Amino acid sequence: MAYDRPTLPALITRINADLLGSLGTGDALRRAEAPVYGRVISYAVHGLYGYQQWAAAQAIPSTSDTEALDRWASIWLAGGRKAATTSAGTLTLTTTAGAVITAGRRAVALDGVEYVVTGSVTATGSSTTVNIEAIEAGAAGNRDAGQVLTLVSPIAGVQAAGIASALVGGADAETDDDLSARITARIQSPPQGGAEDDYVAWALECDGITRAWVTTAPPYVYVRVMAGSAIPSGAQVAAVQSYIDAPSRRPVTARLVVLAPVAAPLNLVISDLVPDTASVRMAVAEAFEAFILAEAAPGATITHSRLVQALSSAAGETSHTLVSPAADVTHAVGEIATVGTITWS
């Protein structure tokens, strides 16, 4: 049976009645002291009820606040909350032979995200590639290949603008919702010495990894992982492989293969959007991304009806026609649907 916390007015009424009843008086005079005492006591009791309500919420991970949730994570999960990770890649610059690009030099993207050169390089020709990583950890540092980064300060013999490779590996710190879900999964599916759930849990303990799926073909165990909505980098895949391969985790008889799913971009053609405004288009695109994040899995079928339903849930959308895909979209083993393009017609 649910417990209803008394409201402040209810407490004032009840405590005043108790006080007056104890004093043996009838209706209190307008300026009598008893109702004043009753109101003060009611405020204090109301605060105690509030503290009790907060304390009760900390008793289980699903309702805990951030501080208590971190304490739960330290008990149930190896490593606790996953920290933010930094995106990395390369930057190719036009140079003259002999130019020196030193570690610590900064480059900035059009959106203001800054990157730092991680190793000094001396140019030997007209094009030089340096390793870079985002200065601040988080998903904001990820970007597609081919984007322009500009050096913050000039370097002799080096053009300021360069072309970046795909910058990947960045992930935000684990959210409370995601951390709570991992704790709940750990409680509901305790370690069993190498069951499928164990491999999923181990993969999700790795920084930046948010989803994992397991298939088996004895003696092989295949673990496919995703980093948010992005296909993980080779370095992330290798990190998961190394982590699960540790003697304290993977059973000695299993042959583990960690790999990234093959991206299968799902492109949409949408017509007759009502109302057809920039804000509604953006809301539809966000609903599409959320749907893919929730529904996509290696080898999974994207059902047409659920896709239409997801697009219809976009804020401000009244109606639309999904021209393509016109039916369910199937995927081969190892393929996963990813966010593609949206064509408006």
Automatic annotation (TrEMBL):
Baseplate J-like C-terminal domain spans which residues?
273-345
Q: Which Pfam families match?
A: Baseplate_J, Baseplate_J_C, Baseplate_J_M
Could you tell me which residue ranges the Baseplate protein J-like barrel domain spans?
Answer: 90-170
Boundaries of each Baseplate J-like central domain copy?
191-260
Q: Which family does it belong to?
A: Belongs to the Mu gp47/PBSX XkdT family.
The family database entries (PANTHER family) matched by this protein are listed as: PHAGE-LIKE ELEMENT PBSX PROTEIN XKDT, PROTEIN JAYE-RELATED
Q: What's this protein's name?
A: Baseplate J/gp47 family protein
Could you tell me which species this protein originates from?
Derxia gummosa DSM 723
- Kindly list the organism's lineage: Bacteria, Pseudomonadati, Pseudomonadota, Betaproteobacteria, Burkholderiales
